[in-house]
Amino acid sequence: MSDAPSIANAPFSLKEITSEGIKPEEYEEILRRLGRHPNRAELGMFGVMWSEHCCYKNSRPLLKNFPTTGDRILVGPGENAGVVDMGDGLHLAFKIESHNHPSAVEPFQGAATGVGGILRDIFTMGARPIAVLNSLRFGDLEDAKTRRLFSGVVSGISHYGNCVGVPTVGGEVYFDRAYSGNPLVNAMAIGLMETPEIVKSGANGIGNPVLYVGSTTGRDGMGGASFASAELTDESMDDRPAVQVGDPFLEKSLIEACLEAFKTGAVVAAQDMGAAGITCSTSEMAAKGGVGIELDLDKIPVRETGMVPYEYLLSESQERMLFVAHKGREQELIDIFHRWGLHAVVAGTVIAEPIVRILFKGETAAEIPATALADNTPIYHRELPPEPPQYAQTAWKWSESDLPPCTAEGITIDGKSLTWNDVLLTLLDTPSIASKRWVYRQYDHQVQNNTVLMPGGSDAAIVRLRPQLPTPHSPLPTPSKGVAATVDCNPRYVYLHPYEGAKMAVAEAARNLSCVGAEPLAVTDNLNFGSPEKPIGYWQLAEACRGLAEACKEFSTPVTGGNVSLYNETLDAEGNPQAIYPTPVVGMVGLVPDLTRIAGQGWQSAGDPAGLRAAVPDRIYLLGILPHSSLPTPHSLTLGGSEYLATLHQTIAGLPPVVDFDLECKVQAACRTGIQQGWVRSAHDCAEGGLAVALSECCIAGKRGADIEIASGSSVRWDHLLFAEGGARIIVSIAPDQVESWESYLKQHLDGYWQAIGQVNQTGGGLRVVTDDNLELINLPVEQISDRWNDAIERRLEQD
User: Fold this and answer.
1) Model-level pTM?
2) Catalytic-residue membership of 99
3) Is 53 a catalytic residue?
């Protein structure tokens, strides 16, 4: 019995085992799977494949509750990307992925290779990438380290996207001290299918050749999947080799070569070599096909000498793919890749025995059952704490009565008197709310000539769906059809109440799509959380997943896949682990049936452009919950968790808004209908900063002022009227000759949940907000609010 393999007689020290990300009990499980001790290469293979990044061992039980099927879903979770049917023979692939830890230690390459990786997920399916979005989180922009990370990440994204020729069309950027040591870099990509059949990743056909194509293999990116599944520490800077180095020009060639190869019909299956490189691609392709793969490392093109199997198998060198080809057609594929200046070699074979067998210098370097690496991996079913954590219970006790009293003139905070003009300008100067012009000006958002709405002027991006080559078996697409896309999450809401905050993330994504006239279709999500091994971390993750699942069902937006990024924690000033705010980013796509009927957020020109009649200003309406409304609804506007509370009062507390699904659906449907009927000329949802900030953004985007009148009620605070946040609220403007039709529709479909609140200023002017009893709350020139909003980020970056 003493000779039986156990961790006690392992050929590795406990430190060596845990350095691979393997727990002692997991090592014992490896022994049960193999019946022997693994060698060094095999230990590394288990380490990366049993990491949270690859096998979702803490999150998989929670992800099973997501809705994943629907009438338009062609490919759901489990492949390189999800695919939805856009009609007219158009199929759209899309997915989101994170590159958080690499970006923390090497921001430029970490972000750049994050873009490269998500693009490969798209074209591996047979789709041409047509757009990229990003969701970014950083610490306080007053901090020099944050400014360095921020600048490096944006430079990396722009470098890779611009060079590869895919437009970066939208995204979001938040700044909060919670992300000081652990920024979040999430990249979403969208592609339009070019191949008649969707390319899958499951290997099949015993004896079929396995091709390695693309770039060479080196030591860069060693163990990146394990690195992404561990908490960042002061020693993480030593993990720079775990950050990959990308080549966007080579990736451009790889896109063209792969799409050409797929169209030949000679490719059986394809897999990107992303996280865990050769280990992941061989094991996942074998497991999905119920077969095995034998691969000879001596055949792999390398860029460095003296590499050993461990290094080959854990390298995450970029721009590499693994193909299974039909036997006898491998040279046809090799010739294509050589014409594009890329490597392509037959490096292995599909075998009947369901194992991954790795050969090196004529010997077997590793041999592991494919399912032991790919799907039959450790799963942890954790218990929720018996009650919410103390920090949340304490935060929930906060109420608006805890704030200092205020008047129609303003409020006194810490002895300083502020008018509501002052408060609004302060919020517009907050980096999370302010213009992201400095960011998106570095991106080529018009390459490919299909970007319909430019960044900064709409609630969601719109890209024209124009296939390169219409397939013979499908009808010609509608020329004016497009896809709208957005990424959304208010992490402060999720921190205060993960269940409600996650629901709101889905609701806001759907609302943003509706504001440009798109019908929400499907979701890809990126779950960025702290350690699930800690009760607070697991409570946040489980409750957020519950909220996401419920909201996606309510909005009929199935989840087609995504990414889980856990262990996003760093050490605070006292050396204690500090998790980021839980941040479940929701990437959502929607269908724009007619590109001639869309809306941005800016007011449009008033009056008759032909000068045939007197100018009459557009009317402005607020749809959804009204600040003073007494109508019954479980969804109340609140200052809890608001930007106003955090920025002006330095307080993170309260309960975030509760989503009223019925009202959300009605408000969003009204907005979409108004746009499609040609009644609505602009639309913008009320999000961070509340009504006053949303109105300001409409003024800035349209370069016109607005005269607004709101009912004050008798018991509502002035700051609540102006800055309370909540869902199901959209500001729209209507051409004067469409008012009668518009109001008739609202009375029938949105009775009680709409109000005419003002008109666009004909002469430019400014934003003026008064109450129904003529108390002036805000009066600011558009130029002043625009300057404050536009310059906030640049002004902070100039400190360097």
Assistant:
1) 0.94
2) yes
3) yes
